[in-house]
Amino acid sequence: MDKFDRKLLGYDINQVNQFVDDTIIKVDMMINKMKSKDLEIEKLKDELEYYKNNENKINQTINIEEPKVIKESDKIINKAKDNANKIINDALEKAEELENESQRLRRNILIYKTNMQDILEEQYKLIDDLDKVELNDTNK
Predict the structure, then answer these.
(1) Is 40 contained in some domain?
(2) Residue 11, helix vs strand vs coil
(3) Is residue 21 situated within a structural domain?
(4) For residue 91, which of 122, 119, 49, 58 has the smallest C-alpha distance?
(5) CA angle 119, 23, 107 (to 5 degrees)
(6) 60 within a domain of the structure (yes/no)
(7) 140 has pLDDT over 70
(8) For a tag site, which of 63, 83, 99, 129 has the least CB within 10 Å?
């Protein structure tokens, strides 16, 4: 966590503002990355649907064609199934990775939020302490 220089009335406002700006940029980047990952998941789902549709078309062709074509079609189907399984496995792995990344990003956001709350609470305490100092000075 960044440390801020202390000024007369608390932390250096420029440093705090820069920290908040940097945090906003980082959170925006995380959100954009999550959106990108969501788009990638959708693309993989579409590809999976495409291969499932192709498998259905191949099955229809097999029912119509000669036995020789049926034998060749079986090879194509097996290859399509292997590809579909590979795509499914890859998609599941990517989905798991994206879920893990998403959870990590959520944890990071929560940590940032907690840190910001702590900083603000410290600022409020400093403000309260300044009020006490001013009151004590007037009593002297």
Answers:
(1) yes
(2) strand
(3) no
(4) 49
(5) 85
(6) yes
(7) no
(8) 63
- Pick from 127, 110, 113: nearest CA to 13: 127
Q: Which DSSP symbol is given to 49?
A: H
In tens, the pLDDT along 51-104 reads 888 887 777 776 676 677 778 878 899 999 999 899 889 888 988 998 999 999
What is the distance between the alpha carbons of residues 16 and 21, in angstroms, rounded to a whole number?
Answer: 9
SS3 6: strand
In a domain, 43, yes or no: yes
pLDDT band at 110 (very low <50, low <70, confident <90, very high): very high
DSSP for residue 68: H
Which structure tokens are listed for 99?
A: 């879920």
Both structure tokens of 104 = 């990590």
Supply the pLDDT for residue 136.
56
Q: Which residues pair with 92 in a beta bridge?
A: none
Structural domain total, the chain: 1
What is the domain range of residue 113? 31-135
Query: What is the residue type of 28?
Result: D
Structure tokens at 29: 């980047």
